[in-house]
Design brief:
This protein is mainly alpha-helical. It has four helices and no strands. It has helices at 2-25, 73-80, 85-97, 107-117. The chain is rod-shaped, with a radius of gyration of 38 Å.
Length: 129
């Protein structure tokens, strides 16, 4: 009889251990909710130069002939020399739209001409509107 009690107690303890193991092994904490990535803050393109200074580019377009004997490329292209192509395009576009160059011009053609003359490229897909 004592062996039956020991056997039933051992079975009860074994079942308890099995049940507690199964119950505690099923606890899986919920994963944290993913944070949505913040969209990068796009700063609108702006010209880092004073747009009024780009009036010297008018000589390149044969609009105004103010300085005689000085190559027109020097003052205009030197203003654009430290800029990336996109920045130079924005600066010239702003100057052309503001009519800083002194005449009504075909903006896309004038922009392409000035950029190419100064060794810059019109950025792909860029439209001066």
């Amino acid at each position: 009889m004592a062996s039956k009690i020991v056997a039933s107690t051992a079975l009860l303890v074994s079942l308890n251990l099995l049940v507690f193991t199964v119950v505690s092994s099923n606890y899986v904490p919920c994963p944290p909710t993913p944070k949505s990535p913040k969209p990068p803050h796009k700063k609108p393109a702006s010209c880092p130069k004073d747009t009024l200074k780009l009036g010297v580019c008018a000589d390149l377009l044969n609009v105004v002939h103010v300085i005689v004997g000085t190559p027109a490329k020097t003052p205009c292209c030197s203003l654009l020399s430290g800029l990336a192509d996109a920045e130079a395009a924005v600066c010239l576009c702003t100057a052309l739209k503001a009519n800083v160059l002194g005449a009504n011009l075909n903006v896309p053609v004038s922009l392409s001409f000035l950029l190419n003359y100064c060794g810059k490229k019109t950025p792909a897909g860029y439209q001066c509107a």
